[in-house]
Write a structure and sequence with these properties.
Chain A is an all-alpha fold. Chain A is built from twelve helices and two strands. Chain A has two domains: 38 residues; 214 residues, MetI-like (MetI-like fold, Orthogonal Bundle). In chain A, strands 1-2 form a two-stranded antiparallel sheet. Chain B starts with a strand and ends in an 18-residue tail after the last strand. About 2% of the residues of chain B have low confidence. The chains are: A mainly alpha, B alpha+beta.
Chain lengths: 276, 391
Amino acid sequence: MTSMDRNERPAFRRRFGLHFGLIVVCAIVLLPPLWVLRTSFVPEQLSYSNELMPAFTTDNYSALLSGRFGQSYLNSLIVALGSVLLALPFAATTGYAFARFRTGGRWARFAVLATQMLPPVALVLPTFTLFRSLELSNSLTGLIIVYAALNLPFLTWILMGFFEGIPVDLEWAAMTDGATAWGAFWRIVLPVSMPGIAAAGVLGFILAWNEFLFALVLSGPKTATIPVALAALQTSNGVQIAKVSAGVVLAILPLVVASRFIQRFIVQGLTFGSVK
Amino acid sequence: MASIELDRVSKLYGNGNYGVHEVDLTIPDGEFVIFLGPSGCGKSTTLRMIAGLESISSGDLRIGGKSVANVAPRDRNVAVVFQSYALYPHMSVRQNMAFGLKMRGTDAAVIDAKIADAANLLGLQSLLGRKPAALSGGQRQRVALGRAIVREPAAFLLDEPLSNLDAQLRAEMRLELVKLHRRLGRTIVHVTHDQVEAMTMGDRICIMRDGRLVQAGRPLEVYADPVNTFVARFLATPPMNLIPATLQAAPGEGLSVLTDSGAVLAVPARHRNAYGERVGRRVILGVRAEDFHESPDKPDWQKIAVRVVAVEALGAENVLIGQIAGQPTGKDDARPTGDDKPLEIAARLSRYFTAPVGSTVELYIDPLPMHLFDPETELVIARPSLMGATR
């Protein structure tokens, strides 16, 4: 046996073991969503069958979209997008102030993070009482405001890290070039931070898109978002598992498409601060 | 007109430490001044205070005769070139150069003309459409300079702009900057830790240490007459040799220096008056590496035995690292380096010099340029300067 064989054998064994482990993990992670995808194309009465594909139908989708689910889809889009657009300007300016001017010091930074430690269920009832008196319950505006407020600390924290990674020389250059501090932020820092802002925006969108508790309490039949609409498929007649599967597929579709396009930004956005 | 006056300018940080301590300096209009010092000596902080990017804790700063302590950076009419170049990554070269003019509301046709001029001067014509990421280090450096030039500022503040370039490009850009200064005639403050840049580029160098301005003067003056051991060592490669010694009276009216390793060096007659008071006291003898020679070309050069530790062949010259041989006096408490290593000296010799490691060779010291320093204060013991003197 040559020395090369001796070296290659353990390498092969290690690689085989690694790949086998990865395949098992992939199967555990991927099989449930793939089974949901399969169930969404199977007639309701055959949905619990053990067969891989007993019959193929798109009825689950058409039934869902012809009902209130379509409206919920639109509601979710409006609420998620609206909340992100409302929260981002506040998050960007607050994050920049924390990053560059050390506003509030360490205490303020911790306070921002501390708000995320409160269980949502402790906030939902006071919010409901408040919004009912403001006539904001059962409205998309109310949900937009709530999601923007809930996501603001998180988005601020992400953007703060991102701004800290931007060399202060850039702002100094702009300020000696004739810009005010605000001008340097607006013309230089913001454009340079676009990947980070996009990453923060997408993460905020996903959080708002998936939120259930506040949507359940604050929305009505016309203002329900997707998570609420999906929960409503669990009726007194039982769980309509094929329709629920179709709903789940529809719900994650925009996230899959979006993440495909902005994966680059997310990775760049989340690593920018540490790499620079 | 843009003279820059620093009037006891200090920068005090929150932790009570001074970044810059009472710096007093007047830079006349059109002068090319170098701030030189090791990392953390306060030279970049001083530059940023001139630019208005750092506040002044005390003292006053005047540009063109007017106090600018409370004037925003954008209103000081100075341009800064940063070590990182700080080019706006989302803008093209043209947009980078136009930014400062646009911020001042300059007419588009004027902007185009100025960019064309600067691009022509710096050889950037073909790069105007590119983004900074698509440029090499040298090109970025030129764009950063171009961005400063188009604004026609009263003063240029350069914060180690050459330190990220390779050696060859750095040498070229050194020359370019000097030419640029001659052509534009503007005040330039250039911060560096590179002694070659300091010696070759500026009208005047200001050496800083621990936030204080230690010495300011023409490069060759500072080189010839350093005020203390720090300046003596910092402004040369290899640094000035600092040898613990005792000043003693020699036969006749002469003086001589007895090094702790037992070598004796006669003090030149023209220094006797200056050093006369120190007879019998401890001193540090300062001899530059180039004042050691292989052969006695002049009668007043004095023989000294050196044990060879290493010979570094640099191509154009050989640097001998060695220990001065003699009868040790047992006084080694004043060793300036403060470590336990035997004192080593460096001598710049010709490229033909060779000697086996461990052997003892005879070298000849030119004693005239030597300095004596006080071992306690590390300050030079003043003697008449040799600058402009004939030998």
